[in-house]
Description:
Number of domains: 2
Distance between the termini: 16 Å
CATH class of the largest domain: Alpha Beta
Mean pLDDT: 91
Largest sheet: 5 strands, parallel
Shape: globular
CATH topology of the largest domain: Rossmann fold
CATH architecture of the largest domain: 3-Layer(aba) Sandwich
Number of strands: 5
Amino acid sequence: MKPWILGLTGGIGSGKSAVAQHFIDLGVHTVDADHAARWVVEPGRPALTKIVERFGDEMLLADGNLNRAALRAKIFQDESERRWLEALLHPLIGQEINDYLAQAESPYAILVSPLLVESGQYHMAQRVLVVDAPEALQVQRTVLRDSTSPEQVEAILKAQANREERLRHAHDILVNDRDLGWLKSEVERLHNFYLTLRGGRES
Length: 203
């Protein structure tokens, strides 16, 4: 039986990576949309060739990898170029995610994506789990993790899908406002519940 797909998302500093890691430790097959986005532009892949054809050799670093800073600068200035790039990459990223999820041996598999809702990737999942945390805690965690300023974190929070929008798509919400031991027990509880589901739905 084909595994069903759980979409896992959460704002910056919500603890979604810790949650994903614990599902992995429990043996759940997991793919990260951010990793898939990096795989599609690796040297030798068609997407990288197309990017260089369109924007020139300055899109490549000396080692043949994509020069992300140069690409960002290029599409940042020009809305139509950004749309061209999204039209090129989104289907490829979707394909990459699908191929990887299809290899799952576990009863369900997880698509981890910070932009699950914004990118429409939630359509690839039968069920959505949102890791949520009080905003003050999100800021505090991210400042500690990235040694960045609270103002920068607040700017990122504003740019990400607002909390309401994310929670509106959630079938399950895990409020991560306690310690790691508690978080692990919550993940285990969800995991045991998910194992009872057929196609991600309660029968």
